[in-house]
# Entry
Amino acid sequence: MLPTLSAVCLSLAAISASLIHAATPSVLRIDANVIVARVSPLHAGLMTEEINHSFDGGVYAELLRDRALNGTLLPRANALGSWMLIGGTNGGSGMALDVSHPLSRAIPTSLRIDAASASLLNRVGVTNAGFWGIPVHPHTRYRVSFYGKAAGEFAGPLTVSLERADGSATFARTEVILSAGPWKEYEAILMTSDEACPTADARLVISTQQPGTFWLTLVSLFPPTWNDRPNGNRVDLMKKLAALRPKFLRFPGGGYLNYVDWKKTIGPLSDRPGVSNPWGYPSSQGMGYLEFLEWCEDLAMEPVLGVNAGYSGEDPREVVEAGPALQSFVQDALDQIEYATGDASTTWGAQRARDGHPAPFKLTYVEIGNEETDPAYDARFAQFYDAIKARYPGTQLIAAGQIKDTGSRPSEMDYRKSAQVKSRVPDALDEHFYQTAKDAFAAVGQFDDYDRRGPKIFVGEWATMEGPGPTPTLQAALGDAAWMIGMEHNSDLVIMQAYAPLLVNVNKGAFQWRTNLIGYDALNSYGSPSYYAQVMFNTHRGDEVLASSRHIAPDLFTSVTHESKTGTIYVKVVNASAMPQSVKIVIAGAAMIERQGKVIVLSGNPEDANSIQEPTKIVPVERPLRGTSAAFEHTFPQYSATVLELYSQKREQH
Ligand code: AHR
# Structure
């Protein structure tokens, strides 16, 4: 079929427009001898909190949901949580929550299973289908553990099996014999066969064919973890995080921070009560303070510790006033720093050693609270500041700064100032930016005019919010890339920055936030276009920001850095327009530029996003770039983020 006249005219218009762009290139001038800023060594990192099943059902590798029956933390939740009875319909059998045999103060509840109708033809037991399924992989070792207790002489045996969700196939099974007496911890290995096909359509079953009564609690199932850590992290997600080359981890929140009493998140799991969280589901706190620190250790990140700035655990919206009422919170923060950094002669350093990590951690950055809007924050910050600086003078203290939010809550607020911190000068201010792509492009110069004599800036949460979610579109990624260009160009001031939220379980009902960096279900995970923009930028960072012309064309955003050890120049360009844009790159002051460099491009349809079904729809493409020199032309595709890697010789040291 012949094209219509209007289609021909449109495509001619597009061709001539792109020819105009190609014919009159914008000019990006770079002076390789002029360093406008040193890139902060901690510039890009991660921010994490329990939201969207980031930990339980996310990076924390535990596969069972409601393992300690802490669904009871939420009054409206079904108290039995994810546990179901099987084989009980033949009469006499049943399952109930029981608080008359507490395992510990933290875990008072157990499951009582009355298997009166159990027989060789009728197994009776309980099932748990995990967080929207349990991932089964071939030739994989799963560690199952539980606390068990039997009535009278009942010894089971209990059969522990990993099965298809409808029970039609068994992937792995083992038997456990119960002993009489008090609670005892049992542990077993479930090994899948080489032939097992990967699936999340699976459940754990603990059952018996002998009549009797038994109790279970703290039932846990772990796949292999990153670095084989017991109680560790999910491997595919850690691999994706490692590829971001993060320099720090901000934890434990976010809004979640004020719900966490860190002293209840350390030690054996049987001493961790779990907690309700602001995002509407209970959290096991298996991901506790030591696990956060070990996560930092595993990815060579510095911890950025958020401490509770005075919110009572009972009602995390209620904050105590500065003065005597706040002192216990200040002491908790001091103890928390000691737990990370103290040696075995200190109370909390010794506790850390008992918990399995004798070596102290490096902890320099501590943030007081999160998104503080109450004017009384100033006095609370001062009280924390004085106590922490007196005991740990090297600590860098971060205050909660301004919040800009045009992305997630556009009708509610455009810009809101946080409480001003006036009484003390914080080492850094944590500013948060959730924006539309349009606002992110308009705000690329946000930090250009900040007073360099004031506190450093930590952009502890930022994201461009575009598209239906749960992970961003390419359009959002372009907003993010432009925003990162603005932060990188100002990285003498913006010492640290982190996208938020980092993780999202994409199952229906699992997430609460619209745009999140990395998506997953029980079996698979994927990076969003924003994730890939960050991988690209973080792996081509450099240590010096070079002088370069800025605002060279509308919808074109640029930043140029240099790696002083190698002489490599990184040119980052976002073309947010619907047209390819031709740019003449002119480099003064560099030793000869090699004729071949490299180009890495992220581009595509701005509305497109990645997903479990199409995890690599939008990914960066890398190729050699021929013809690079001290003055060469390059065309940046429409809707693209690009890194050019140019090789020059190392600068002479004077
Ligand atoms: O990142 C999601 C939430 O946004 C954080 O919990 C909070 O700090 C911010 O309002």
In short: Residues 49, 51, 253-255, 370-371, 461, 500-501, 513 surround alpha-L-arabinofuranose (CB under 6 Å).
